[in-house]
Amino acid sequence: MNKKKSDFLASLPVQVLFRFILGGLFIYASISKIVHPFAFAKIIYNYKLLPDHLIYISAIALPWVEMISGLFLVAGIFKRTAAIILFSLLIIFIIAISFNLIRGLDFDCGCFTTVTTENGSNPVGLLIRDILMLIPGGIIIFAPSCNRRD
To answer: Considering only CA atoms, which of 133, 115, 4 is closest in space to residue 73?
Structure first.
């Protein structure tokens, strides 16, 4: 990457914008799951990826990890660490969606709501969205920054 692009991506306004986009999306995504943990557990179960004893733990813990990491990112607290956590969650989501796409399962992603639909989610659209969400996370994590303490 040339110096001008690197400087632009590391600039404070771009970093703040990407923190608000990524953090805000995860805060929003966590709310329905926190309010309706049993509905979210059902969505996790329908992925058919976790053993039964991990489903309820995941349904309780995952939304809070999303919420806290999103809040930290928006507030600028441990922003690089929060971005790494959210980036990692996106990678996990991409793998889970891809795995179920390959298996041909109909499922609701549970991304922004715990309301299920008859036809499930569009897995290709979900993959594209999640891959695009990696961009602000990657820039927050990897772009040179004035403050590398976090």
So the answer is: 133
Q: How far is CA 92 from CA 4, 52, 127, 135, in A?
A: 32, 18, 11, 15
Long-range contacts of 48-53 (CB under 8 A, 24+ apart): 48/100, 48/105, 49/96, 49/99, 49/100
DSSP codes, 11-54: SHHHHHHHHHHHHHHHHHHHHHHHH-HHHHHHHHHHHT-S-HHH
Residues, the chain:
150
pTM above 0.90? no
User: CA-to-CA distance for 131 and 103, rounded, in angstroms?
Assistant: 20
Flag whether pLDDT at 102 surpasses 80. yes
**In the structure, what pLDDT confidence band is assigned to residue 22 with cuts at 50, 70 and 90?**
very high
| Structural contact between residues 89 and 109, judged by C-beta atoms closer than 8 angstroms | no
Q: What's the average model confidence in pLDDT over 25-33?
A: 94
Task: For residue 138, give the nearest of 7, 1, 2, 9 by alpha carbon.
Answer: 9
SS3 129: helix
